[in-house]
Specification:
Blueprint lengths: L6 E5 L4 E5 L7 H22 L4 H13 L4 H8 L3 H13 L3 E6 L2 E9 L1 H25 L1 H23 L1
Antiparallel strand pairs: 1-2, 3-4
C-alpha cells in the first residue's frame, strides 16, 4: 500500500463513507500537535507559576528578540490570530509587560514593545527555561534536536512559499 494511501472508513457520526488517513500516528498535523503537547507539558508549570499564558509568553519572547513591532507582524511572528492578540495585548499592558507607542507621523499605527517588567520576567524564568531545554536536548540528543528544528524550518519555508503562489 502506498505510504500516503487513503482507506475508506465508516463514519459512525454521519453514517456515510469517509476517506481517512490510514493511521493518525502518521498524519503530519496530528504528529506536530502531539509533539507540541509533549514539549509544552514541560513548560506549562513554569508559566502557570508566573500566571503567564503560552500566548503571552510567545509575545514576550518575540518582542524581546525582535524589538518593537506592529500588531500584525507580532501576531504573525508569535503564531497568534490577530483577534486573540488584541485581548492578549490588553492583558499584558495592564500587567505592564508591554507598552504601546504611536508611530510618529501616523497616529493610526502603534508599535508594541517589551517593557522593563516584561524583560525582568524573561530574566526570572531563564534559568528554569534553560534547564527544561537542556533536559529535552539530553533525552532527544543535541544533533537530533538541531536536525528537527532545521527540518521544521524547511517545511515552514516550503509550505509558506507554496501558499504564496
Amino acid at each position: 500500500m502506498p505510504r500516503f494511501a487513503l482507506r475508506v472508513a465508516w463514519n459512525w457520526n454521519f453514517g456515510d463513507l469517509t476517506l481517512l488517513p490510514p493511521n493518525t500516528r502518521r498524519s503530519l498535523p496530528m504528529a506536530l500537535l502531539r509533539a507540541r503537547e509533549v514539549i509544552m507539558a514541560h513548560f506549562r508549570p513554569m508559566l502557570a507559576r508566573h500566571d503567564i499564558t503560552e500566548q503571552q509568553w510567545r509575545v514576550l519572547r518575540v518582542l524581546a528578540e525582535a524589538g518593537p513591532l506592529e500588531a500584525t507582524e507580532l501576531a504573525n511572528r508569535a503564531s497568534i490570530l490577530p483577534p486573540s492578540l488584541t485581548r492578549i495585548i490588553k492583558a499584558m499592558e495592564e500587567r505592564r509587560f508591554i507598552s504601546r507607542d504611536k508611530v510618529k507621523n501616523d497616529g493610526r499605527r502603534a508599535l508594541l514593545a517589551i517593557s522593563p517588567a516584561g524583560l525582568a520576567l524573561i530574566e526570572d524564568l531563564s534559568p528554569e527555561r534553560i534547564a527544561i531545554y537542556d533536559a529535552i536536548e539530553r533525552r532527544y540528543g543535541a544533533e537530533q534536536h538541531e536536525h528537527l528544528l532545521d527540518l521544521l524550518e524547511s517545511l515552514i519555508q516550503s509550505e509558506s512559499s507554496e501558499n504564496q503562489t
